[in-house]
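Shape matters. Shown next:

___
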Amino acid sequence: MHARDLAFGLLERGHTPIVYSTRLGDVAREIRERTVVVTDNLNTVSVAPDIIHGNHHLESVTALLQFPRVPAIHTIHGNLGFLSAAPKFSRILRYLPVDYTCCDRLIYECGIPEDRIRVILNSVDLRRFTPRSALPARPKRALVFSNNTGSHLKAVREGCNRAGLSLDVIGADTNVCREPEKILGKYEIVFAKARCALEAMAVGAAVILCDFQGLGQMVTTDELERLRAMNFGHRTLKNEINADLVACEIARYDPLDAAEVSRIIRATAGLDKMVDETIREYHEALAEYKTIVRPDLEIEESEAASYIRWLSTEIYNNMSVRARLKTILSRIPVLSSPQVTDLILNLASKVASPRKRRNGAYKGKKNLSRDDRPYK
């Protein structure tokens, strides 16, 4: 969604965005229908772009290797996990975390210099998510708006029952809704986190931060600035999810305060602001690239080797990463043969195996999860 919104914003400002992904689905079709070029094979791009803007490391590194004289910036969307790791290449001149939790990961886990980091907070398309009518004095309907609902839905439902609220659910793993802007205005209270929470606030619902990772608080004007700096995300979900705590947060419902939260979000978190801030970083990165000594081929080959070494370790140690990467490799045209994909994964495992033994992983030591470690 971030890539879609940014591509539309760039197109409206007269730029020529090109969207690359190894997996093209409904969102890709939506982007293409708006006349933005979409491809799953960079060999189809006959002219090098002015700048590369990556969102996940696999696609970012692919683009860096495809276009060896083009500078890049990279957005970090998550503070955990394989896909949100930050690739380290000399030509990535800016890292753009969407909140200060991700910023901490870049500095303290990935070793990215602070002068290369610019926080650009998440945004909401105000033209899609329009204000609802005024909230009633007492809430009647609540909504769980999340792609991960299984483990916490029972507690939320019980808490809503105690407060006399009906509860509906939308999300990727329950009831897919491709146009949430059309239904959010029907609910007084929305349980959500991160971008989903931001969209619900923009519409004017009272939002309780909640996801399978934990329960946060009702978003109020007093806490809005602090919570937004954390993208209403994982770091805000401090409490265990149980019906008692859910009912307590529902009891904090204040229609006037929720309306003020919505007004502030609409004044400060619009998509246009995010697009303009991103373009500013493009210009700064391009200007800097003209003045620096370009990394030579040997340095870039070493950086690529470090990335592949890290990737091979992730594949070897984490079966979920291995399965996910196998799916990604199968969608790259030149690697679409299952035999070729299996060969790459087996070679990566062989590369990682000696390194794992050297690091003492077979000595019974309890290691931190490698799924979250940056490569070096």
Notes: The radius of gyration is 22 Å. Residues 354-376 have pLDDT under 50 and may be disordered.
